[in-house]
Amino acid sequence: MKMLRPRALTCQEMVELMTDYLEAGLSKRNARKFERHLSGCDHCTEFLRQIRTTIALTGAVATDELSAQRERELTALFQRWCTDSP
Amino acid sequence: MSIDEAALLGRLRSGDEAAFVDLIRRHHPALVRLARSYVPSDAVAEEVAQETWLAALRGLPRFEGRSSVKTWLYRILLNQARTAGVREHRQIPVEDAQRAVEGWRFGPDGSWSHPPASWVDEVEDRVRAEQMTKSLRVAVDRLPSAQRDVVTLRDMEGLTAAEVCDVLDLREGHQRVLLHRARSRLRRTLEAEFGEAAI
After folding, report:
1. Taking each helix axis from N to C terminus, what angle separates B161-168 and B69-83, rounded to the nearest 10 degrees?
2. Is 0.90 exceeded by the ipTM?
């Protein structure tokens, strides 16, 4: 079996591995390759920073508040349930 | 399930209305949002979410607290949506959806020829950050539904990967692929709208 020197990852491959990297889904070997590329590539470093920021911003998208009317409707539903169930 | 949640459910079992109000304030809007992936209108999504609360109350004696309340409710919601036969996934075609970044932005050797435009520092500006979250909200709604479900549960609602797989009946690898496409797509939206060197 021929032993080939592991080929470095290209930027185009890097962007497809970002989630696997962040989710700890890469093998140890691939994680090392990923980090080696990252340490020498400002663009991919910036890209990873953008993905992290995207995740943080998505988490900041506010869920709608429950309206007072909806709260009354649901509470009525709860009251009916309390009455109906033994 | 946390201690806090266990106490809340205990109160709910004894018919405490305040405990119920607490739960619906925490979870109802997110349930409606998730339901919206499966049904054709906001009104139907609201109905499905209400049915979910009824089913949860009925199932309460059997809930053993092995999962978080959130996960438990989402599972009931998806069952409701499917049982109602309203699984009408809105599929919106997305061009070039399989790739995190369009191919033309790389040279023949696979390195960046059109590198990512910078926008991350703009988050420091509160107004700008609010604009970004607004854009994201719209962009999430436009994602293909399977991607939207995963990114909503993971990144908006904060479920773990294992919980998302449990709620949506996905394998871990598939969950990660959907999450990757969704996050990549959302990043692209932010870059297109807020990137310095408009591309």
Report:
1. 20
2. no
Residue to substitute from B12, B47, B74, B183, interface A, most A β-carbons within 10 A: B183
Interval B138-164: pLDDT, tens? 999 889 888 998 999 999 988 999 999
Q: Which of A43, A53, A85 sits opposite B120 (nearest CB)?
A: A53
Q: Is B159 buried (19+), middle (13-18) or exposed (0-12) by CB count in 10 A?
A: buried
**% of chain B at pLDDT higher than 70:** 91
Helices B126-142 and A42-59: crossing angle in degrees, nearest 10, is: 80
Residue B112 φ/ψ, nearest 5 degrees? -55, 125
Residue A4 confidence (pLDDT) above 60 = no
- Which member of B20, B46, B106 has the closest CB to residue A11? B106
What pTM did the predictor assign?
0.83
How far is the C-alpha of B94 from the C-alpha of B33, rounded, in Å? Answer: 21
Q: Is A76 on the interface with B (CB under 8 A)?
A: no
Distance CA B6, CA B11 (A): 9
How far is it, in rounded angstroms, from Cα A67 to Cα A71? Answer: 6
- Rounded to the nearest 10°, the torsion over CA A38, A43, A49, A52 is -90
